[in-house]
Amino acid sequence: MKIYNTMSKQKEEFVTIEPGKVRMYVCGPTVYNLIHIGNARPMIFFDTVRRYFEYRGLEVNYVSNFTDVDDKIIKAANEEGVDSSVISERYIEECKKDMASLNIKPATTHPKATLEIDGMIDMISTLVEKGYAYRAEDGTVYYRTRKFKDYGKLSHKDIDELRSGERDLLVTGEDQKEDPLDFVLWKPKKEGEPYWESPWCQGRPGWHIECSVMSRKYLGDRMDIHGGGEDLIFPHHENEIAQSEAATGEEPFARYWMHNAFLNIDSHKMSKSAGNFFTVRDILKKYDPQVLRFFMLSAHYRNPLNFSAELMQNAENGYNRIVNCGEDLDFKLEKAGESPLTGDEEKLLGEAGAFRDDFIRVMDDDLNTADAISAVFELVRFINSNMPEGASKAYLSGLKKLLTELTDVLGLIIFKDREGLSDAGIDSLIEERQQARKEKNFKRADEIRDQLKEMGIVLEDTRDGVRWKRAK
Ligand code: AMP
Ligand code: ZN
User: Fold this and answer.
1) CATH level 2 (architecture), domain 2-260
2) For 48-83, what is each residue's pLDDT tens digit?
3) Whose atoms come closest to the Cα of 31: which ligand?
């Protein structure tokens, strides 16, 4: 299997440090608000990466943090007149609810920065001892970027140019720094802020040190994959490398650096600070969560994805196509006899297996979920045209098993219990029935009518078209 590594700017063969096991860390959200659908992109994508590894028989240790101490959290807390932990705990809970709706598996560990302060103080002390960090007069501790010989290796930036570009920082209040690229490891508290005791001053950690410490604690000095959105490459991940490799003496800190491109609106990055965002909660008022998940996976993760009503509509249609196929299968399965698998059916099942091979081939090529969805569509098309009257239970369940196997890897829930079928799913079945009638395919139209009836859906033909309601 190949994975694109931001470090080498190439697809590389994926080889784990420990055979059969993957250790991966994905930077999680800062919790001061409901998560927006931009934040959901890495959550959904990396959850799919994890599911794929598990599908391929690897054991995955998946760590994703919550940044629960930060200026924005403190600001929100001050505005509400509550402790900052009230804000962060509230939004961690809300984030977990959104993750559950989107069928994102909980990580093996979800560390919280505020519970790992001792580890951060330890790592900063090590960096100070080794000469990689220094304390300024007011108690701030900075990382000494000049001392780390490979600084800039991940982001491929011209560090000297950056340095000279930011030289004026040194005369605008940040002149405690030795170098404009030095960054904060520990900062002194300000009035009304949460703080911890430390050898340097009462204060709190900088953001970058949090991830170096939490990833090391739960995954060790080295890990296979470190991921996040591409905005984190510089400075966040660059700084994590500088901290971790200097502190542990081990390199590389992470073997593969994976970054998802942005979710945009009108070609601008969706972000809380720019105010051009939709929360996951907003979107789930209008769409089935599975449609949002489908939408995120419908583009390659390294391509920007533009959010629009039109693309969401496409996603809804695409998702419903798979759901409808699943429902047809279920419907036929209930009626199917116990007759043994025929030779023809066995042959067809063998042919269907080719779509699994396609699916694996494209996922093996840098997790191409867009092409993986195409492989599922091909399977759906195959199933739709190979479900003859009188098909055996064994045959139909073979197809259902394969469809479930592939959609499970993408984390898409296709077979909901009947009670739970979404309104959109019902609408599209009705639409399919209308279409079948138009094409004089009365057999199919009647099948759908029976299927809906069994689900307790009552149809009414009105002058404005077909209406439906759930029978009590
Ligand atoms: P934040 O809460 O801003 O620290 O972001 C948490 C995660 O979401 C990080 O991995 C970010 O890179 C990612 N992220 C934030 N906004 C977007 C966006 N518009 N598109 C894709 N990923 C994003
Ligand atoms: Zn991080």
Assistant:
1) 3-Layer(aba) Sandwich (3.40)
2) 999 999 999 999 999 999 999 999 999 999 999 999
3) 1
